[in-house]
Amino acid sequence: MKKLLVIVVLGLFIASQGQAKVKTKDINFPGKFYTTEIKSCKASAYNEWHNSFSVRNDIRLVKGLIGYDWPADWEKNSTSIMPIHKNITDPIKMLMVATHNAIGNNEQDNIKIAKNFLIELAETDTLYDSIGFDDVKKKPTCYAGGDVNAPCWYHQYGFARDAFGNYMITALWLKDELNEQEFKIVDKYIEKMYKKFVKPIEFHKEEQGFYQMANGGTAILVYASWTNNKKLAAKEINFRFKEMDRLFYEDGYINNNSFRGTKAQHYHSMGLNIALGYVYIADLWGAEIPKKLHNKLVKASEVANLAITDWDKFTSRKYSGTQHNKISSKDSARMHTHHMAFALDTLMKVITGVELEHDAVYLQKRTYHMKDGIDDLIGFNPNCTPEALALANKAKQEAKGISVDLELPIFDDVEYTLEGQILKINIGEPKMKPLMQHMGALLMKCGSGLIDTSGWLSFVSSDSDDIKNARNQNCHYDYFQKSNDSEALELFKAVLSGTDSVLDYLQK
Predict the structure, then answer these.
(1) Which of 124, 243, 356, 365 has the fewest CB atoms within 10 Å, i.e. the most exposed one?
(2) Residue 51 and residue 173 in one domain
(3) Are 154 and 254 within one domain?
């Protein structure tokens, strides 16, 4: 028996070693989580009146988090279907982005303010009185008894855990600025919080779904960097890759996320965004992304596009698991890409090479969260990465060439005019005949919002803040997608893709 046991144990050990893709020696901490050096980034600075400790309101927002009673807030205001968490998520995002901007711009006074906030949050044990993971397991599940208004104890835990994870990222950014005493205060708080909120989920297998901060995996990575524990980082990455491989199906759908009824698109794109964010960090730190997992992420990106272009086909995929959090109510529907994943297009392009399809509602809604300057679901702003800056620079150079010479053949010999954030095209021109042939059917399907019966068709800038026009634009896009007229579809997409460049040119 003893010999058999030894053989079994040895076999399991060898198997586990064979499965491991990342070794401790592979790990190299960049020091600043998502980068080796924090630089000034326009994507993280909305404007001079926002996202800075030079602004009184931004300071006041962060101050509100110090010692905040999150459990009381959660108990009073949150339900399973509607967690109200802005009183902890908004301040931690402001702390992160204002700290990032202070360091990137070398603003010593603001760096000092950031340090003081970091220390005050630690000294007051902020969020420590929130329920921990071990106690959550003893509570009823979310949507208990099918009641959407039932309390969700996991929300109280999860938002506290993730706010702490983002606190640790901020601490990493400021680590070199802390003196010995300041470091001891912050480190003591981190150890205390980690023990209650994160350590219990180390290598914990989630039954369903892929959600905030990679189901807590991102917080483990940050702690590993803070403590310079390469062994923990390697072990976490190997575990999370296996989890992602289990939860992401071969066809790109995500366990639980992709099957949540009228919110399926919302949660699929959320899970994809978080997975891509985690993979970006893992790759930066020295991990080799398994080919099988990468292929699944490519497929998941394509499914995100399918949800945009063909909702019925996207939702036709059957799910065999238990779905206690499926939402059927149209009143709660979110049939658009997750608006807080404001740089999903960037991550998809960088990691999978897949271009995100045009989602007008998403493009309008995400502008609000772009102003936050940080994606707290993944712990950084993908638009501030070197890869994103390179893509943006390339696009800028291309746009510059277009703006100077207006080298867009599609607009040659076509009459057009500018009205605010709308470009009006005269589709009576011969070049626009493929579009003109559809005007009657387009008018019946989408209404006259962007159609002038005298022969003009309007195209909306991606920067437009008019949600009505954005929805109408999306209706036009969907119509041509389903028209079985490839010539008209390609022409429509060509005009739409060139709209921003022409608008920019005309405005200048």
Answers:
(1) 124
(2) yes
(3) no
